[in-house]
Specification:
It is built from 12 helices and 11 strands. The chain has helices at 57-69, 85-93, 122-136, 155-167, 181-194, 217-224, 258-263, 269-286, 290-299, 314-321, 330-340, 348-352; strands at 6-10, 13-17, 24-26, 28-31, 74-76, 102-107, 141-146, 171-177, 199-205, 227-231, 304-309. An 8-stranded parallel β-barrel has the order 4-5-6-7-8-9-10-11, surrounded by 6 helices. Helix 8 (269-286) packs across helix 9 (290-299).
Length: 367
């Protein structure tokens, strides 16, 4: 499974291959969703990405230095993050080290009121990529994700324009985010049949409080040598341990607001508190933070290439970076897997029981 291979170590940061590309990326990826501030271009009635946090220029520069000093070479953003501010910050702060870092960005969602400025069409993707290149102040994008499935546009059209952009040197690798398993597999099949560039990375919502990705996407990704990067590995901050059972969401906290709460759901909130309690016990035994335990759990799972972390304050980033300084014992990992396990829906419970008679060692199938 090349996506989980660790190929070298720099200080405390480890590097893993991105899918079958041979490209080495840091196991922690620094995301730019919190960079900048301001409302959505559509106004208060639309989702306001500033609800995820806002960071000014001075702290962005400081945290970027922290990330680089820690050995992070993998950075993630999207055109919709603060209407392009995330890309602009990366363009300014990474310019001097551009040849040593891997920058991923995304396109698909609307950021203007133009009726065609949306989707995964040839029209929109050409314009979106050119706009991202300008904001990033670079000649190429290392990894370009389709930010979500577009049911109005054929996968053939989307993959052909992405292949054109790769051949033109504007994009080096392509990926997807938030696709269903059948959508990803269909896209890979189209690429193989048409001899087009193939998706090498899947970015999805995955953490110890919501393990849905293990049912379909992770086994598919391992089988097809597609790297997996996990967004919101801390479930919008819930898995840092700062939310207490029976106390609700503190006013002004991220998860007290609509967009972050909807974007970081937990499979079972009561179970999630049990998970946090168990993580807190391990954190105390380790002399670590609960957030570090949550990040380490993601990085310990099969198929995972990198966990995307974000921060609004330098001390939060510093704590997250320390997650790479230690690893679980088998007993600790088993404790966390047990407290976070859920009942699999059909057909996955059948696959994991009746269908497990011919399972091979190392196979990644839903339990």
């Amino acid at each position: 499974m090349p996506s989980i291979h660790v190929n070298r170590k720099q200080e405390n940061m480890r590097y893993r291959y991105l899918g079958d590309t041979g490209l080495s990326v840091s196991e922690l990826c620094f995301g730019a969703m919190t960079f900048g501030g301001g409302a959505s271009f559509l106004g208060a009635a639309d989702r306001n990405w500033s609800e995820f946090g806002t960071v000014d220029d001075q702290n962005v520069a400081r945290m970027m230095d922290q990330a680089l000093d820690a050995g992070i070479n993998f950075f993630d953003t999207a055109d919709v993050y603060k209407n392009g501010m995330g890309e602009e910050f990366f363009g300014r702060t990474l310019k001097k080290v551009r040849d040593r870092v891997i920058i991923g960005t995304k396109g698909r969602w609307r950021i203007t009121d133009d009726p065609n400025d949306v989707g995964a069409t040839r029209h929109h993707l050409y314009a979106a990529v050119e706009a991202s290149l300008r904001r990033l102040d670079t000649d190429y994008i290392d990894l370009y994700h389709i930010h979500g499935f577009d049911p109005r546009t054929s996968l053939d059209e989307t993959l052909r324009v992405l292949d054109d952009l790769v051949r033109a040197g504007k994009i080096r690798y392509i990926g997807v985010s938030n696709f269903a398993g059948w959508q990803l597999m269909k896209a890979l099949s189209v690429s193989d049949r048409r001899n087009l560039s193939r998706f090498v990375c899947y970015q999805g919502y995955y953490n110890i409080g919501c393990r849905d990705l293990e049912r379909e996407i992770i086994p598919l990704a391992v089988d097809q040598n597609v790297g997996v990067t996990a967004w919101s590995p801390l479930a919008g901050g819930f898995l840092t341990g700062k939310y207490r059972r029976g106390e609700g969401r503190p006013e002004g906290s991220r998860l007290a607001q609509r967009t972050p709460a909807e974007s970081a759901p937990l499979t079972d909130e009561n179970q999630a508190y049990d998970i946090v309690d168990e993580m807190a016990r391990i954190a105390e035994e380790r002399g670590a933070s609960v957030a570090q335990v949550a990040l380490n759990w993601v990085l310990a799972k099969p198929g995972i290439t990198s966990a995307v972390i974000g921060a609004t304050k330098p001390h939060q980033l510093e704590d997250n970076l320390r997650a790479t300084e230690w690893e679980f014992t088998a007993e600790e990992l088993a404790r966390l897997d047990k407290v976070s396990e859920t009942t699999a829906p059909y057909p996955y419970w059948h696959i994991g029981t009746v269908g497990a008679d011919r399972k091979l060692p190392g196979d990644v199938y839903p339990a």
